[in-house]
């Protein structure tokens, strides 16, 4: 199984300055966000994380089917970082400095060499949901509990880079970027019909969208000339059906040369950068050899497209009152929907 390939961002030379000055809203909207793939965290493993402008620690309890736990990273005793040298002991995480142990709720359950546990010996525990090979954390600026969950996406569930989720789908490809932008801006891209025509070479794009609570669905029907993937003169019809589940997870089902699925996740790191990840696979039926060739071409095209987008995202200004045209697609609907987060 091939490891996920971290990929450097295309942001060299980006203008300095805080994201909060570029975007007129909170850098950390309310949503579920990916913090790791499941196969990055075996039972008993500990990973330091940096998201939402905070230091966090992720660990998996040590039993055979251990569950992931995310806590604030600093021990309330004398401030040691639990993600650097911390050790999993059963269902608890042990501090590397003095051996205090914390359970999944963030409560200290053991202080070595002490007869009692101080009443304030606890650290924050975060809501965690593991599904489809993803470890997700819920962020709410007011600390409220989640009222919805990210649905299962079985085609990528538990596969890992280089592994197949099911016999019907090819091994999953992954890529990762650190991008100077905001999660609302990356999500808006999926609603921008005009840039699909101008930047990404699609033709005759017909876009529709609908919203339902925390979900937004966007459909683009299009024609594409295939010079970009080495088939000049070939034109085919295609459809991309995207489902936003909050602002952290977007799945796009692609029906063109073959049937494909792109899962993109975007997680705020701090007030400046977003952790953007792609996972892509293609249905192997009816011909696996053709599917593999098509997947390679489509994957290379998707990576090129997002890196073209990154060059725009990292340098653009966010306009609260943009001058839109009839060519733009459902940007206005997206902005209205995204305000709830």
The strand line-up of the biggest sheet is: 12-18-17-16-15-14-13
Task: Report how far apart the termini are.
Answer: 36 Å
Strand content: 25-35%
Round the mean pLDDT to the nearest integer and report it. 89
Write down how many β-strands occur, each being a DSSP E stretch of 2 or more residues: 18
Question: How does the helix and strand content classify structurally?
Answer: alpha+beta
* Largest sheet entry: 7 strands, antiparallel
Pick out the low-confidence regions: 1-20
Summarize this structure as a short list of keywords or feature phrases:
four-stranded antiparallel beta sheet; seven-stranded antiparallel beta sheet; alpha+beta; disordered N terminus; 15% helix; 5 helices; 341 residues; globular
Descriptive account of the structure:
The chain is an alpha+beta fold and 341 residues long. The chain contains five helices and 18 strands. The strands form four sheets. The chain has a seven-stranded antiparallel beta sheet with strand order 12-18-17-16-15-14-13. The radius of gyration is 22 Å and the shape is globular.
């Amino acid at each position: 199984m091939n490891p996920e390939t971290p990929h450097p961002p295309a942001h060299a030379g980006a203008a300095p300055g805080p994201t909060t000055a570029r975007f007129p809203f909170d850098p950390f909207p309310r949503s579920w966000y990916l913090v790791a793939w499941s196969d990055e965290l075996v039972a008993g493993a500990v990973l330091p994380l940096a998201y939402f402008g905070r230091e966090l620690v992720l660990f998996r309890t040590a039993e055979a089917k251990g569950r992931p736990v995310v806590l604030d990273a600093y021990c309330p005793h004398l401030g040691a970082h639990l993600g650097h040298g911390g050790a999993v002991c059963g269902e608890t995480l042990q501090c590397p400095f003095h051996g205090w142990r914390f359970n999944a709720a963030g409560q200290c359950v053991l202080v070595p060499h002490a007869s009692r546990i101080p009443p304030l010996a606890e650290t924050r525990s975060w809501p965690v949901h593991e599904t489809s090979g993803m470890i997700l954390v819920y962020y709410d600026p007011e600390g409220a509990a989640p009222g919805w969950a990210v649905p299962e996406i079985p085609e990528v569930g538990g596969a890992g880079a280089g592994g197949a989720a099911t016999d019907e789908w090819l091994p999953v490809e992954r890529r990762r970027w650190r991008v100077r932008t905001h999660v609302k801006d990356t999500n808006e891209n999926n609603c921008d019909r005009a840039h699909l025509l101008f930047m990404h070479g699609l033709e005759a794009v017909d876009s529709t969208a609908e919203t339902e609570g925390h979900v937004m669905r966007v459909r683009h029907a299009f024609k594409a000339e295939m010079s970009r993937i080495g088939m000049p003169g070939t034109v085919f019809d295609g459809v991309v059906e995207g489902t936003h589940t909050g602002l952290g997870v977007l799945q796009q089902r692609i029906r063109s040369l073959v049937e494909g699925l792109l899962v993109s996740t975007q997680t705020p790191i701090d007030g400046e950068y977003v952790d953007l990840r792609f996972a892509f696979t293609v249905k192997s039926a009816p011909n696996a050899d053709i599917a593999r060739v098509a997947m390679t071409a489509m994957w290379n095209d998707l990576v090129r497209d997002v890196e073209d987008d990154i060059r725009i995202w990292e340098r653009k200004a966010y306009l609260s009152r943009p001058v839109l045209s009839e060519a733009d697609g459902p940007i206005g609907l997206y902005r209205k929907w995204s305000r709830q987060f």
